[in-house]
Amino acid sequence: MKTREELISAANYDESRVPSYTLPSPLDKADGSKVANAFEWVNFQRPRILELYKNELYGKLPPRPDRTSFELLSCREDALGGIAVRKEYRIHFEMNNGVSHAIDMLLYIPANAAGPVPAFLGLNFKGNHAATPEKDVLITGQRMPGLDISDESRGVQTARWNFEETIRRGYASATICYHDIFPDGPEHWDKSIYRLFCGNAAPASMNESYSAISAWAWGLSRALDCLETEPMVNAAKVAVHGHSRLGKSSLWAGANDPRFRLVISNDSGCAGAALFKRCYGENVAIIKSRFPHWFRDSFAKYMENEASMTFDQHFLISLIAPRPVCIASATEDLWADPKGEFLSGVHAAEVYRLFGVEGLGTDVMPPPDTPLTGQVSYHLRTGKHDQTPQDWAHYLDLADTYLRTE
Ligand code: GCU
Fold first, then answer.
1. What would the pLDDT profile of 341-353 be if each residue is shown by its tens digit?
2. Top mutation candidate among 125, 157, 245 for ligand 1, by most atoms within 8 Å of CB
């Protein structure tokens, strides 16, 4: 086995060296026949593929805790210069075994809303306080050893969150720090929500069946539970979004929880939207050796062995059908394989068609900065690996189309 460094330096960025591969179809049934209609997909094939993903890649999702409650910690009516109401919720989880865990959600809502508004929901990397320009937001992320939670870390990811524009366009926007759900490191199982289910200290051996990505997806669903209790939000119209590893998590959350009406993957790359079998940029051996806890242990069998996979990431996109899904890439983000991200959208089309919905409608990748809008949409931004106001402009346009109508 090569070392991590050897694997990374051998990563392929040459289109002519992409191995030839045959993509399996999500419509192929175990008995060799094809799924014929949406009924068969929803009742038989989709559950089978969801199970396959739990077994082969992300692991199981934990159950709901024995008790969940929502505590309103703060409410400001004059947030973001007066355009927003800002709320901070603490989501408490309690178990009959006495273990409890809590995560804090930051929520902005347009101050002038006439009624409940659609919302965006996503996890953040550096704490709620880092996502906003407002200096009096609670510090979060403390469960992650070494994370900078000093006052200097306030507001450092404001551009990535774009709260003001989202509010101006009439949407609420909520976020939670992903470290509060599972601090991002292979040695942090005992600080994660998995503690709830293990009488306190979750052993690393849980990685045999579970993963950090499943914990983050679970956390997004618990945040949606909280939004369902918030009178100023229309929780039937929530877009789940995420950047990079958190885009992998938003896709997995969207696949598991049909309450998410629009699913957005921003630069999610390997084990997100990108096709594994292209082996372009990051590949299974690299990602599983660097981030073993993101996936269940059994995923290791595909290291340097993508050809043996009986599925690929267009199956994951298909699990979201017929709900709208948006795949976004950046031109300089070759690590995430923009073309592979685009192709998973292309190849999910056969499942969307079962529902009478046209997928991407083309297999030709659009030029940069000319988004394809539709129920399956694709957007290639000029620039680096990031979630920028330009990406948000596209997501807000999609929300205008898909979260404003019945
Ligand atoms: C690393 C990792 C990617 C991941 C990214 C991120 O680059 O290799 O798979 O998407 O981190 O989350 O920023």
1. 999 999 999 999 9
2. 245
